[in-house]
Amino acid sequence: MNTHVVISAGTELLRVPAARLVYIEADGNYSHVVTQDGHRKMVSFQLGQLEDLIADQLGEAGEHFVRLGRKLIINTDYLYSIDISRQSVVLSDCRQFRKELSASREVLTRLKAYVDASVLNYDG
What we know:
10 strands, globular, 3-stranded antiparallel beta sheet, single chain, 124 residues, CATH 2.40.50.1020, 5-stranded antiparallel beta sheet
């Protein structure tokens, strides 16, 4: 299993440890890759392409990355809070990194249900 996400296009290559990749945000035909240290790198891939790339490269570990609507892919390891009424999700490492993002109520309701189900099904 790969432990890095490698995004290669043209003359550029971006190699990010999967555990440090916090979220990816769509911006038209481009996407911004945001890491735990706050760095933000624009890549010439659409969100759907990056979603497929993560699944292909990380295999089972890619299940930690969840698509939220048309705009976001988040690493659920950084999920700190979901506030459906405020339409916000907070991603944090509980040390230095904290980012509040907005998403639709429908998407956040599904995310909360996914997390609730994951907690209920946890064996360990």
